[in-house]
Amino acid sequence: MASTLLNDTFLRALLRQPTDYTPIWLMRQAGRYLPEYNATRERAGSFLGLAKNPDYATEVTLQPLARYPLDAAILFSDILTIPDAMGLGLSFEAGEGPRFARPVRSEADVARLEVPDIEATLGYVVDAVREIRRALTDGQGRQRVPLIGFSGSPWTLACYMVEGGGSADFRTVKTMLYARPDLMHRILEVNARAVSAYLNAQIEAGAQAAMIFDTWGGALADGVFQQFSLRYIEAVARGVKREHDGARIPLIAFTKGGGQWLEAIAATGVEAVGLDWTVDLGHARERVGSRVALQGNLDPTVLFAPPAAIRREARTLVERFGNHPGHVFNLGHGISQFTPPDHVAELVDEVHRASRAVRAGQRPAEPA
């Protein structure tokens, strides 16, 4: 899909190229904190009705871009689309989160797992990527901002597949990991191939960057993380296309609670590592040097503070990273559904304003 990017700042930052300012997008930026999203979800009838309809998915993907001068769009979907495509029976109950009717618990369950046919089972996601790219592009082939595709990590998907939904302690999946590591490695191997195929399908359809959400990697012990999460992130990084239509496709890996493994994550072959808010951004940059870009890492709760505090915390992070290439500003996790939308506008404006000052060799002043 040929197009000319009007704003490629996000992609250049991921590739550690110089930028005029620090680009910003937000994890879960199309979500329940926006009244227009809630209106569209109501028309769709349910979360899955929204996520599985390319027209609705396109509509909500574009909604935050209409409100804020964000530097990237991210496909609206869910990380659990792959296990749903494997036939595990995904549903969302009000107030309870995702549930699988057929969790993977026995040897027979594990033996039945196979990589789904992406076009046959997840064609609605691929169609949404194509439709979003068209919607981002005007009649002269000029595209507003890049589009990010994504998937859950093999380990994070396995957590939901074995637990049958969310979990406070991951007792079932971690018991399988320790008692029957052979079964867990089989699940993760299938998942890694499925994630690679899924991301490649998104890239072929028009995604210009991709992200792996290892949401539950931080639930693992040191040593266990390397065997059962990191190893399979690396497998995905090897399997994902990094060039398409003559352009580099940057890959971002985000492990929530994974700050202690930053160097190891950076060595998996990804272009960027996402950080949660527990990591010192300046120290993280020193630790990885020029190997990867970094994404993050404002505490999402900051967005409940008054505008002056939001701007102060944003400036602090921009200054902490310094005048170096390779920073994409983001939250340290997804935006809360209770976030005041006007506070997001304050954040985006301050990141752009303060980072332009830093690029000019100045210390950003408080806004007038």
From TrEMBL:
For biological process, the GO terms are: protoporphyrinogen IX biosynthetic process from glutamate
Which GO molecular function annotation, any one, does this entry have? uroporphyrinogen decarboxylase activity
| Keyword Nucleotide-binding annotated | no
Q: Which keywords does the record carry?
A: Cytoplasm, Decarboxylase, Lyase, Porphyrin biosynthesis
Give the EC number.
4.1.1.37
Reaction(s) this enzyme catalyzes, per UniProt: uroporphyrinogen III + 4 H(+) = coproporphyrinogen III + 4 CO2
Report one GO cellular component: cytosol
Q: What class of enzyme is it?
A: lyase
**Localization terms from the record:** Cytoplasm
Summarize where substrate binds, as residue positions: 28-32, 78, 160, 215, 333
Q: Which pathway does the UniProt entry assign to this protein? A: Porphyrin-containing compound metabolism; protoporphyrin-IX biosynthesis; coproporphyrinogen-III from 5-aminolevulinate: step 4/4
Report the superkingdom from the record.
Bacteria
Q: Which PANTHER family match?
A: METHYLTETRAHYDROFOLATE:HOMOCYSTEINE METHYLTRANSFERASE RELATED (PTHR21091), UROPORPHYRINOGEN DECARBOXYLASE (PTHR21091:SF169)
HAMAP family, alphabetically?
URO_D
Q: How does it assemble?
A: Homodimer.
Q: Report the protein's function.
A: Catalyzes the decarboxylation of four acetate groups of uroporphyrinogen-III to yield coproporphyrinogen-III.
Q: Which family does it belong to?
A: Belongs to the uroporphyrinogen decarboxylase family.
Name listed for the protein in its UniProt record: Uroporphyrinogen decarboxylase
